[in-house]
Amino acid sequence: MCTKMTERDFELALEVFRACLPRVGAKAKNDRLFLEALQYFTLHNISWRALPERFGNWNSVWKRFDRLGKAGVFEDYFSILAGLDEGAHLIVMFDSTVIRAHVSAAGAKGGRKVKRSGVRAAGSAPKSI
Questions:
Q1: Does residue 36 belong to any structural domain of this protein?
Q2: CA proximity to 46, closest of 104, 100, 5, 89
Q3: In a domain, 124, yes or no
Q4: Rounded distance between C-alpha atoms, residue 84 and residue 110, angstroms
Q5: Are 14 and 81 in contact (CB under 8 A)?
Q6: If 20 and its partner were Cys, which of 6, 76, 80, 109 is the partner (CB 3.0–4.6 Å)?
Q7: What span, in angstroms and rounded, lies between the C-alpha atoms of 37 and 104?
Q8: Taking every annotated instance into account, which residue ranges of this chain make up the domain Insertion element IS402-like (predicted)?
């Protein structure tokens, strides 16, 4: 990994992550690999499909991320990490939000091009019922 997380940091993050997981349902085989996949995803700003094969099937990683996100696991995870003195710096490594604008958002302002003057608009009849 090209981050500054030590082995101890990953062990702490993994311990907190496992404590936040729901008690019901099937347990995953490799939680560390899943956390590494999420870290790689956010660090390299890629799409899910571009996730390297060493993390497993990209769709399985995404489904697990989606399921855990809807269950509120990540909110608990980040709040616990933020509360730990020794683990607070780990939030920077995992908590990253990327918001991309649509292609059309880069263009000129849309909408009506011609504006009516106030005097002319006051003298004319309304156009709708």
A1: yes
A2: 100
A3: no
A4: 48
A5: no
A6: 76
A7: 31
A8: 15-76
Handedness of CA 109, 96, 20, 61 (dihedral sign): positive
Instruction: Please write the tens of the pLDDT for every residue from 52-98.
Output: 999 999 999 999 888 888 888 888 887 887 777 665 555 555 544 55
The range of the structural domain enclosing residue 54 comes to: 7-20+31-98
pTM above 0.85, yes or no: no
- The Cβ-side half-sphere exposure at 125, using a 13 Å CA radius, reads 3
Count of domains forming the chain: 1
**DSSP secondary structure letters along 93-119:** HH--------GGGGS---S-S----HH
Task: Say which residues have a Cβ less than 8 Å from residue 64's Cβ, sequence separation at least 6.
Answer: 28, 34
Q: Is residue 87 in some structural domain? A: yes
Identify each DSSP E strand in the chain by its residue range.
none
In a domain? residue 121: no
- What is the rounded distance in angstroms from the CA atom of residue 52 to the CA atom of residue 24? 29
Q: Which amino acid is at 23?
A: R
Number of C-beta neighbours around residue 65 at 10 A: 17
